[in-house]
């Protein structure tokens, strides 16, 4: 009876991990697009989208993941792990696609790929992923700091209009945008709680945490620091250009400058922290709200967010499928 209860609890937990992010993203998308004319979005997609610019922007989306895979291999080398570069890249492809199903599961899945194909310690590689995330966090905080200093009035207006500034209690309780932000924060809190519970479970496995720590400290042993810095900068430059060049796909955003793109890029980057599939919902909310501050009407901003997010998500799926197909083909000789 006890085993049955444990299985039921485990099944319920797995179900919630899968369903809650979808529900949260769906709720936010519903509020953002509840009065939206999807027929107009279809018209823009079919007849008013410059696909040459869109394809050009996707190139940078691919290279962002390739550079991430190459950088990851650098952090594994101090652990005497030398996986194939292509395996690291394909593992990253798969990780992004996996996170569309269960947010943040990609970090675990890419470590599993190297454990399977290159005999890399799962715990140690997970530690290097933690290190990577710390480096990326510092990088985006630096980018954010510079952007906020350069565009302070825009951020102040954004916080005011979305109800995240602290005005009257009545204003907060009647603002739809405030509730969207509130649900985003709740989603992030649930994500961190789930991660804490997961780490608590692994702490009971002898040696696991020590192996993770060894992976975290691998950054000290990286042999080519300038190359590591180059990869880090290349990753974030590619992410930015992946977003920025989509402005030229539409007549109503082509006039927006690089600073506007940088502001939206920062806002969108923080929005995808919310555990929904590829940031669906929070990302749309952030981009639409900020784009309106630069004079784009709500309908056009909604069209932009819907099309760009949809196509970029489709790219993630395609790369994930490629990674799944390529890995067994490029490792046949090892079997």
From TrEMBL:
GO terms for cellular component: plasma membrane. It comes from the Bacteria. The chain crosses the membrane at residues 12-31, 51-70, 134-156, 176-195, 227-246, 252-273, 285-307, 313-330. Keywords: Cell membrane, Membrane, Transmembrane, Transmembrane helix. It is found in: Cell membrane. It holds the Pfam family LPG_synthase_TM. Its main location: membrane. It is a multi-pass membrane protein. InterPro entries: L-PG_synthase/AglD. This is Dolichol-P-glucose synthetase.
């Amino acid at each position: 009876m006890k085993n049955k209860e444990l299985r039921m609890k485990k099944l319920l937990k797995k179900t919630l991990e899968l369903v809650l992010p979808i529900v949260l993203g769906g709720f936010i998308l519903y509020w953002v697009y509840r009065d939206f004319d999807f027929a107009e979005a279809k018209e823009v997609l079919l007849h008013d989208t410059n696909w040459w610019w869109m394809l050009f922007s996707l190139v940078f989306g691919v290279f962002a993941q390739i550079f991430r895979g190459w950088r990851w291999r650098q952090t594994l080398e101090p652990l005497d792990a030398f996986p194939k570069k292509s395996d690291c890249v394909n593992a990253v492809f798969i990780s992004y696609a996996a996170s569309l199903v269960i947010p943040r599961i990609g970090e675990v899945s890419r470590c599993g790929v190297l454990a399977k194909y290159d005999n890399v310690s799962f715990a140690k590689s997970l530690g290097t992923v933690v290190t990577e995330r710390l480096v990326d966090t510092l990088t985006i905080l630096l980018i954010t700091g510079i952007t906020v200093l350069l565009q302070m009035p825009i951020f102040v207006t954004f916080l005011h209009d979305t109800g995240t500034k602290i005005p009257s209690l009545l204003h907060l309780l009647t603002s739809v945008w405030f509730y969207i932000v509130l649900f985003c924060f709740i989603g992030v809190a649930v994500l961190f709680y789930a991660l804490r519970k997961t780490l608590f479970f692994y702490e009971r496995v002898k040696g696991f945490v020590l192996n993770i720590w060894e992976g975290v400290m691998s950054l000290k042993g990286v042999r080519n620091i300038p190359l590591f810095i180059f990869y880090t900068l290349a990753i974030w430059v590619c992410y930015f250009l992946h977003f920025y060049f989509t402005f030229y796909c539409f007549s109503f955003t082509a006039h927006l400058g690089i600073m506007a793109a940088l502001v939206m890029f920062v806002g969108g980057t923080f929005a995808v922290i919310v555990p929904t599939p590829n940031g669906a919902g929070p990302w749309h909310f952030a981009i639409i709200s900020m784009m309106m501050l630069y004079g784009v009407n709500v309908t056009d901003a909604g069209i932009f967010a819907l099309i760009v997010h949809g196509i970029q998500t489709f790219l993630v799926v395609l790369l994930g499928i490629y990674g799944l197909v390529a890995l067994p083909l490029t490792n046949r000789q090892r079997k």
